[in-house]
């Protein structure tokens, strides 16, 4: 069995591959990725769950190779040999993240481009100024709920709520439905025993919304997807919305959490930010370099026998995109005090045809959440030693279980969104 979440992966004493969830949940994943690189080179064998191994691609160049060569490395999980041969159980907690779905994530080539266009079109139609105003109002309302207390958990009372309620609003869901989606998504991304149940709940809420919008169209993103000519049936419409909300929520939660954590745990970083030497966007990019929202991204599947980073890759092998490890590749990331600030060549959004389509709204929501917290809680500080922070169990995302902070208690008046009803 893998060590429990929070245990360092280098405490793994078995002879088999290191469990990926233990790497992500370790106190210092970068140190573990460096150990793996020293042992394996740029492509290492890891364990996804007991008895199921995969290649973790940690080299920056190798990452560009597998993300750009669709003819050799497919996104379609129906090519996964271990799944086809029954090594991965149909009840596995990995499947909500890794199993094939009729959506843009599981497609290659022309089919991928057909399914990608509704996402690109939907994002292009967003009114960014209105979204920013509504997110700022939401952030202010959340902070107002705890500001007089003088303490808060900035993960569970703030960073996990902001993106989900922002995305739910864009798709025409109310805050109750948004919080139900959030609970289901946390289970889904955990890839553990409750993952499939979380996935079913998540999809059912969105399917009900799709059917309601077909009866009563409104001016929201759900209606945009329902009416898009590239989406041929209800399943494709549903899965397009699933991708937008699931990918957007977990990653933005992690991005907000890590940026705030950096400010609270790295005095030099915080001093440069508060002193005006470092802009908020620079801070956001430094967080992407150090701890990308998806530490590891599933997956690519080899369509032919090949070689990558000196390792023999067999047809049907599963390759995991080690985004955090690739950002730390010594070929691209030097250990300097200011290295990376203002540099956006990181792979936090992946690369190639499947590069994240929602970088603009993700940055907009994250920047607004971070700026609002800095403005309204200027003297916030961590309430526990930094080395006591632990991480939600997941082989993919690295989100703190909690970020307990203290600050001067003060009343923050909640505001009504300026753009509401516009």
From TrEMBL:
InterPro entries: Cyt_P450_B, Cyt_P450_CS, Cyt_P450_sf. Signal peptide: none annotated. Coiled coil: none annotated. Belongs to the cytochrome P450 family. This is Cytochrome P450.
């Amino acid at each position: 069995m893998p060590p429990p979440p929070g245990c360092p992966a280098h405490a793994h004493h078995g002879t088999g591959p290191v469990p990926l969830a233990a790497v992500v949940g370790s106190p210092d994943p970068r140190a573990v990725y460096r150990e793996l690189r020293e042992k394996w080179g740029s492509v290492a064998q890891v364990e996804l769950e007991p008895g199921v191994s995969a290649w973790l691609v940690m080299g920056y160049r190798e990452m560009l190779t597998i993300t750009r060569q669709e003819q050799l490395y497919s996104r379609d999980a129906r090519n996964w040999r271990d799944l086809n041969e029954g090594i991965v159980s149909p009840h596995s907690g990995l499947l909500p993240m890794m199993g094939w779905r009729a959506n843009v994530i599981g497609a290659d080539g022309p089919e991928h481009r057909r399914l990608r266009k509704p996402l690109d079109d939907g994002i292009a139609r967003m009114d960014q100024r209105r979204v920013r105003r509504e997110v700022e109002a939401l952030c202010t309302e959340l902070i107002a709920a705890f500001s007089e207390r003088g303490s808060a958990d900035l993960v569970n009372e703030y960073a996990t709520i902001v993106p989900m309620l922002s995305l739910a609003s864009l798709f025409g869901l109310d805050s109750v439905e948004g919080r139900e989606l959030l609970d289901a998504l946390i289970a889904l991304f955990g890839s553990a025993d409750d993952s499939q149940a979380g996935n079913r709940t998540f999809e059912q809420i969105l399917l009900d919304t799709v059917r309601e919008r077909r009866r009563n169209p409104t001016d929201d993103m759900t209606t945009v997807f329902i009416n898009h000519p590239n989406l041929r049936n209800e399943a494709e419409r549903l899965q397009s919305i699933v991708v937008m909300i699931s990918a957007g929520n977990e990653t933005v939660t992690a991005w907000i959490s890590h940026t705030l954590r950096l400010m609270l745990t790295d005095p030099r970083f915080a001093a440069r930010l508060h002193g005006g030497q470092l802009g908020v966007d620079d801070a956001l990019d430094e967080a992407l370099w150090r701890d990308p929202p998806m530490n590891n991204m599933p997956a690519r599947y080899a369509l032919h026998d090949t070689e990558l980073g000196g390792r023999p890759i067999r047809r049907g092998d599963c390759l995991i995109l080690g985004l955090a490890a690739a950002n730390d590749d010594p070929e691209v990331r030097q250990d300097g005090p200011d290295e990376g600030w203002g540099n956006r060549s990181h792979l936090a959004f992946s690369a190639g045809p499947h590069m994240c389509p929602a970088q603009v709204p993700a940055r907009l929501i994250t920047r607004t959440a971070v700026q609002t917290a800095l403005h309204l809680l200027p003297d916030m500080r961590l309430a526990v030693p930094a080395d006591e922070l632990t991480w939600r169990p997941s082989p993919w995302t690295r989100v703190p279980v909690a970020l307990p902070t203290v600050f001067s208690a003060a009343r923050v008046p909640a505001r009504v969104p300026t753009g509401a009803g516009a």
